[in-house]
Specification:
Layout lengths: L4 E8 L2 E8 L2 E5 L1 E3 L12 H6 L5 E4 H6 L3 H6 L3 H5 L5 E4 L2 H5 L5 E3 L4 E4 L6 E4 L1 H11 L3 E3 L11 H28 L21 H4 L6 E3 L1 E2 L5 H14 L5 E3 L8 H11 L9 E3 L5 H9 L4 E3 L2 H7 L2 E4 L2 E4 L19 H5 L2 H9 L4 H27 L2 H13 L14
Parallel strand pairs: 4-15, 5-6, 6-10, 10-11, 12-13, 13-14, 14-15
Antiparallel strand pairs: 1-2, 2-3, 7-8, 8-9, 16-17
Helix pairs in contact: 6-7, 7-9, 11-15, 11-16, 12-15, 14-15, 15-16
């Protein structure tokens, strides 16, 4: 019996309500996943993340491989036990991080050779190695190693990267299946302090078998419709999958091009599996993607922007450090349940940011996450009621309309 499943209901055009079952619980979709790169959403604890409405979070295999090491994470019982998160988790393979290491890496057909920016050590990152790393980390959903290139790349470069990603997917699948069949290799011996509990790896009978996991392929091809179609065709011909991701977007292309790519991909993606749109997390982009049939989302932008003083509201983004907020006693929003909105006013939040008090970035990052969780929850409610399209159109109109004045209840604080 499979540990994974997906069912849908209440379709509204291409948008749909869904339930994605994993070994650590069921995610109701559409859903936004907070990014915990190092198995931690920066500055926030897992209880806060859960209370914000998160159902599933993700970590990054590349970063955990470098520190503390994938074998160390495995020794502590896997990423769920290590991070103290008992819900579903996903690990990205690190394709984006490799992409961002332009000065430190070399990409070949075999894989990626790069130097660790932390200590200068040389590493080889292959599809097989990535599967071993992600199997050690133990998230419910793991991603293939793909080749991501710059937004706006020409057709030839985009085709080359897309075709290589398909070849790497096949190698990922073969190694994933081998580890499922044969189990994981024993880890190096790790000593524990006297009196400390034993590590999970000390019990080989339970440690060597690979945990139940789902491998997701990634659709690539830039903003070229023919390449996206070819990528999807190749993925569907290469195996049976529990879900599929769309990557390579939100890397500098125009929003209209991104939305056009959603329109190309959605009709070709199987209806009976979750669609994960990688790296997209602005409120308007989420609703545009939901309306085009996407189900799962992640992005570092909400927490990163919050830590730097930019917050989401239904009337657009607010720059909290602006002087207009110095005497503003209103909450960020009236209907948000986060601590920033229920306990503090804009003037105090601004004060925290301009005085560089650590509480400020934490509160604003938590607000942005809560805002997106509330937005996705409302989208699910509207889908269930059959009113998603009408509601979404009105919500987007309001969000995109820049308020021309300040000082009234509808001002967005800009």
């Amino acid at each position: 019996m499979s540990h994974f499943g997906f069912r849908t209901a209440h379709p509204n055009g291409n948008a749909r309500l869904g339930w994605f079952t994993t070994p650590h619980g069921t995610i109701e979709t559409p859903a936004f996943m907070p990014v915990g790169t190092h198995a931690s959403v920066r500055g926030l604890d897992m209880g806060e993340i859960r209370r914000a409405g998160a159902q599933m979070i993700l970590a990054n295999a590349y970063h955990l491989y470098l520190r503390p090491g994938d074998q160390m994470v495995r020794a502590f019982g896997g990423v769920h036990a290590f991070a103290r998160w008992d819900g579903p988790m996903l690990t990205d393979s690190g394709g984006y991080q490799v992409f961002s290491l332009a000065r430190y890496r070399k990409v070949t057909e075999q894989g990626v050779e790069f130097r660790n920016k932390l200590d200068g050590s040389l590493h080889e990152y292959t599809p097989e190695k990535v599967m071993q790393i992600e199997r050690n980390i133990g998230a419910d959903v793991i991603m293939q190693l793909d080749e991501l290139i710059e937004g706006g790349s020409d057709h030839r470069a985009s085709r080359k990267a897309m075709e290589r990603s398909l070849r790497w997917l096949e190698r990922c699948r073969v190694e994933f299946d081998r580890l499922e069949r044969d189990g994981r290799a024993p880890v190096e011996a790790l000593a524990v302090p006297d009196g400390a509990p034993p590590l999970a790896t000390h019990d080989e009978a339970h440690d060597l078998p690979a945990p139940p996991q789902a491998l997701f392929p990634i659709v690539q091809g830039g903003t070229y419709a023919d390449l996206r179609r070819a990528s999807i065709e190749g993925i569907l011909q290469s195996g049976d999958w529990h879900g599929i991701a769309v990557g390579g977007l939100s890397v500098g292309e125009a929003k209209s091009a991104m939305y056009d790519t959603f329109d190309v991909c959605a009709p070709l993606l199987p209806w009976d599996m979750p669609r994960y749109l990688m790296g997209v997390g602005f409120p308007d982009d989420l609703l545009e993607a939901v309306s085009r049939g996407m189900d799962l989302f992640d992005c570092v932008a909400p927490t990163r922007m919050g830590r730097h003083g930019t917050v989401f509201t239904a009337d657009g983004k607010v720059q909290i450090q602006k002087s207009s907020n110095r005497t503003d006693r209103r909450p960020l929003t009236d209907d948000c349940p986060c601590p920033a909105c229920t306990q503090y006013d804009r003037a105090y939040l601004r004060h925290l940011m301009v005085t560089e008090e650590p509480l400020g970035p934490r509160l604003l990052a938590l607000h942005n996450l809560t805002f997106l969780m509330q937005l996705m929850e409302r989208a699910r409610t509207e889908l269930a009621a059959g009113t998603f399209t009408t509601w979404s159109d009105e919500w987007l109109r309001r969000y995109r309309t820049r308020t021309a004045f300040t000082g009234s209840a509808s001002a967005n604080g800009r």
